[in-house]
Protein: Aldehyde dehydrogenase family protein
Amino acid sequence: MSAAGQKLFIGGEWVEPDGGHYEVVNPADESVVGLAPEASRDQVYEAAAAARDAFDDWSRTTPEARAAVLDRAADIIQRESGPYAELARAETGATTGTARGMQVAVGVSRFRRYAKGALEPVEEGLPPQVNEAGPMGRGGVFGALAGRRPVGVVTCITSYNNPWANPAGKVAPALAMGNTVVVKPAPQDPLSVYRMAEALAEAGAPPGVVNVVSGSRTEVGEAAVDSPDVDMVSFTGSTAVGRRIGEVCGRAMKRQLLELGGKGAAVVFDDADLDSAVAGIGTTFAFYSGQICTAPTRVLVQRGVYGPLVEKLTGYLGFMKVGDPAVQGTVVGPVISAAHRDRIESYVELGKKEGARLVAGGERPDFARGFYVAPTLFADCTNDMRVVREEIFGPVVVVVPFDDEEEGVALANDSDYGLIDYVWSGDAARAFRVARRLRAGGVGINTVGRNMEAPFGGFKQSGVGRDVGSYALHAYSELQAIVWPGG
Structure:
């Protein structure tokens, strides 16, 4: 990137932003990582128009040609993974291991997955149907097939917690299906997404197929949603913003894929492997400093093991070294910004006022610079507390006791959210029985691991639609039926 700052990527060209540049700040030490471009509303519309112009040709390329572009992009990202991971770490405050393994490496794997995905069948023959003669015409045998077709121009609005895996999880399946995209990265860490655009351009994506526009002002995202050239919006972020996007899309009947907030319940029964449960719950503190919507932040514990679990979780926090994410051994890095740190701290104060027992954390770590929050554990919580009901999006875990299975399920489901819940139990039959009753898009049984072919998305306020694996290819396509008379 030149000293003058990053340019926008519109129609295959690097374009000076109308709104100048703003600073991207390293959350770990508050240094300036680089200068990000501030697009105007007109430039966002230009990006969408470029995507519209490119759509017809790109949608009619062969699946093999689209697969080749995605595979080459994965090769290029792999080749540049060292500097790309350094940039991601600087922009997001993720630890070096997370930036390499869970950001850039996952980005590579998603491009590889959807290079294969471009070759998946898109048409399915349906059983023939015998129709009697009637008002609809002569009788006969009618064949039919269901085919998936690209939606058109897709706006991809990405989250700040993972500027590689999240955009790749949108852009790669959208392109594999023959769509063109306008990517609007999170304002806090957009520079990584411009590197992704460079990789796709080098890989042979034709001009206009991929466009990237960024900005710190809300009007950039608004324009990316309300542009008349946009057919679909794929968004990862807060439920509040998701609602606004849904309203705008609804007016024009634009397709939506919304992955929104979460307040994951971890239901821990008295026959659970507590060490496994604590290790899973502990990922809330470690991954992205709690800035992850799938985290088990709401721990519901059966009373028989309530004390031991709180004790083990408190002990686990002793290994949660807070500090510079570039330093080996750091587990918990900073949160994304001073404003977000202040928001998390206000929730910690609120938890104290609501009567929750502060077991660990609660004080700002003693660093001269950077946006650090101590891993925080609240016990003796009740389900009506705001710290239990609202998404904090930081390294804060709340613990609520319950008596029996019915109460555990009821407490877990008493939430506005329903993204991913978790069950820990030594009784497999009970674990699966409870999992099926949880109102969440995903349930982990005795694990926080993910199967990357399983559908991902939320019930209730946690979103609309599903992606990941082949489900993402379905999300970025429209179903078309073709019917014909038999001989």
User: Anything to note?
Assistant: The chain has a mean pLDDT of 96. The first strand starts at residue 8 and ends at 10. Residues 96-117 form the longest helix (22 residues). The chain has two domains: 8-260+462-483, 265-455.
